[in-house]
Amino acid sequence: MAALSSPGSSPHPTSPRVYFQSPGETAEQTDRRHQGKVTVKYDRKELRKRLRLEEWILEQLVELYDCQEEEIPELEIDVDELLDMETDAQRGERVKKLLVDCYKPTEAFISGLLEKIQGMQKLSTPQKK
Hints:
Elements: E1 2-5, E2 17-20, H1 27-32, H2 44-65, H3 79-84, H4 88-98, H5 107-117
Antiparallel strand pairs: 1-2
Helix pairs in contact: 2-5, 4-5
C-alpha cells in the first residue's frame, strides 16, 4: 500500500513523499523505513488526448447501452491493447467482442474509436525526453 504524505508533514517540506506500508504495519513503522520519491514523466499532450478519448468512450457507451454511466455493463476497452494490434480490422473485432451484449448497432462507435486512436501512443511506458 502506498500513502502520499503532504509536504508539511514530511521531513523535507519541499516535495511530497511516497511511503510504502506493508499489511499490518503501522504508520509510525512506515515513517522509520526508507522514504521513496516517485517521479514519472509522461507526455502531457498524450495524457490529455487519452483523457478526452476516455470521456468520449463513456459518453458513447451511455448512449449505446441507453443507461446511466454507473449502469454500464462492466467491460474494459484497453486502448493500449488496441494500439498493440497490427490492423484496424483486428482492433474492430476486439471491440465488437467486448460489446457483444449491446443491442444497439455498434459500427459507428467502433469506427469512431478506431479513428480517434490513430496516431496515439501507448501510455504503459513513460516517454523519455
